Amino acid sequence: MKIFVTVKLKSKDNKIEKIDDNHFLIFIKELPVKGRANKTILKLLAKYLGIPISQLIIKSGLKSKRKIIEIID
Questions:
Q1: Biggest CA pair distance of the chain
Q2: Rounded CA gap, 45 and 17, in Å?
Q3: Which of 8, 16, 19, 36 is deepest in the core (most CB within 10 A)?
Q4: What is the dihedral of CA 22, 41, 44, 42, to 10 degrees?
């Protein structure tokens, strides 16, 4: 299953807004330095979906605000 994510940086809080079943808007405090933002995104998404972080992989958009994240079973 693929999830499409748009990221908003420098937010007050870390939070997720669900747009529809496969599209999410994620607000994070982190800056995109040394992959910290991507790690935060994966942690938030794993917690939101109730799955282990090891089941999430960023398929595209490692350096972009728009990402495609795949959930592995």
A1: 33
A2: 11
A3: 16
A4: 80
Element (H, E) at 17: strand 15-18
What pLDDT, in 10s, does the model give residues 1-60?
Answer: 999 999 999 999 999 999 999 999 999 998 889 989 999 999 999 999 999 999 999 999
Q: How far apart are CA 58 and CA 49, in angstroms?
A: 15
CA dist 44 to 21, 56, Å? 16, 11
| pLDDT grade for 73, boundaries at 50, 70 and 90 | confident
List all residues 6 or more positions away from 29 whose beta carbon is below 8 Å from its beta carbon. 10, 11, 12, 13, 14, 40
